Structure formats: C-alpha cells, structure tokens
Amino acid sequence: MLVIGPLLVPADLAAVQEMAASLPFGDGRATAGRHAVGVKANDQALPSAQLDAVLAKVEAALIANPLFQSAARPKALTKLILSRYRTGQTYGLHVDNALMQGLRTDLSFTFFLSDPDTYDGGALVIEDHFEARAIKLAAGEVILYPSTTLHRVEPVTSGTRLAVVGWVQSLIRDQGQREILFDLDQAVEACFAAGGKSSQFDRLSKTRSNLLRMWVDA
Ligand code: NI
Question: How do residues 129-147 score in pLDDT, each as one tens digit?
C-alpha cells in the first residue's frame, strides 16, 4: 500500500478540479459487480470529451510517476472512472472484480480530486487481516493498494467527494515479487547515488534485471 503524489502541479490540479465539477454524472452502479451493486451508492461521470480530457491528464501524470512505475510495474490500465459521492452516498464493503475489460486487476488506485476540507466522511477504508486503515488524502494524491483486499468508502456526511479510480494489470503478478523489485529499485538508486557505476552497482542492477526476466508476465 503506497501513497503517491501530489501528481499534478497546483495550477493543473485546479484546472482538472474545475473541469470535473462541471461534468454530467450518472448512477455509479453501472460499473459495479453483481454482488457489489447492492452496497454501491455513488455517481460516475458520463462519457464526454471533457471527461476524456480529465482522465487523460490523471492517467498521464500517474504513468509518468517513477514511484508508481516502480511499485506497480504496469502492463495495462483499465479505463479510469471519475466517481462522485454527495452527502449520504457511500460504497459498502466489497472486493473488486478480478477481471475488468479483459485485464487481471492486480492493483487498485484512488486519485483524490477534492480538497479534504471540502467534505466530511468519505475515507477509503482498506481491510487486511490485522486492521482496517482509513485513508483520506490531499487533493492530487493517490493511494495504490492490492486489488485482493476488502475495502469500502465511508459515507460522505457533508460536501462532495470527487475521485478518479482505476485498476492496473502488473507485469509482475505476485505481490511479494513486486515488493522485492520495488526495494531493489531503491537500493540500485541509492548505490548509484553513493558510488556511481561501481562493481556493486553493476552486480545489484544485474540481479534486478535477472529477477525481472525470471518473473515478468509480459
Ligand atoms: Ni472497489
């Protein structure tokens, strides 16, 4: 589980917030799975050129982010969704579909678009075996988390919560292997920063490359 961002510079974020706020929205249950449909009560932006522009900006910023690349190693992303929760709306406990648009969903992400001061409630709560973590980020920040988890969005009790959500099929299917490669990325960078292209650096980057070759699901 990883917080990334802020992804957009303040001027771009403000422009995306403004565009998103004026879009037409429909019932969010259109994209819920068979069992999630009963607990989902939100809205999602209807198709339009302006929506495509919003989603393209978010997607481009995410793809360009080195931390996202290192943590997710994306092979493909589903089409993003702009969701809206108004007062009283919520998304109860559910697990995301394993397959979406022909992609295996390895990782889920939520890009918080609304300033947290503008709404109450609306935290994303992710449950693992030990605890439930409530996540409410600054506008422009992203939480990346395993799609294997049960999670929910707490009811919004005032204001409006806008967020962009999407799913990643990773080149590395196994979460443990993804974590090893993520750690190696950090180690390779630190080794280079400390000593340049040393023999340790060469050995470490060779190991990273060869593990990637061993595990990649290309
Ligand atoms: Ni979900």
Answer: 888 999 999 999 999 999 9
**Residue 112's closest CA among 71, 148, 147, 156?**
156
Burial class (CB in 10 A: 0-12, 13-18, 19+), 99: exposed
Greatest C-alpha distance within the chain: 59
Ligand 1 center–CA 80 separation, angstroms:
13
pLDDT tens for 24-45 read: 999 998 888 777 888 999 999 9
What are residue 104's phi and psi, to 5 degrees? -80, 130
Tokens of 72: 């997710």
Q: What would the pLDDT profile of 150-208 be if each residue is shown by its tens digit?
A: 999 999 999 999 999 999 999 999 999 999 999 999 999 999 999 999 999 999 999 99
Q: Which amino acid makes up residue 169?
A: Q
Task: Go through the domains of the chain in sequence order and give each one's CATH number.
Answer: 2-170 (2.60.120.620), 175-215 (4.10.860)
pLDDT, residue 144, reads 98
The DSSP secondary structure of 36-70, one letter per residue, reads: GGGTEE-EEEPP-HHHHHHHHHHHHHHHT-HHHHH
* Residue ranges near ligand 1 (ion) with Cβ within 5 Å: 96
Give the Å distance between the CA of 152 and the centre of ligand 1: 7
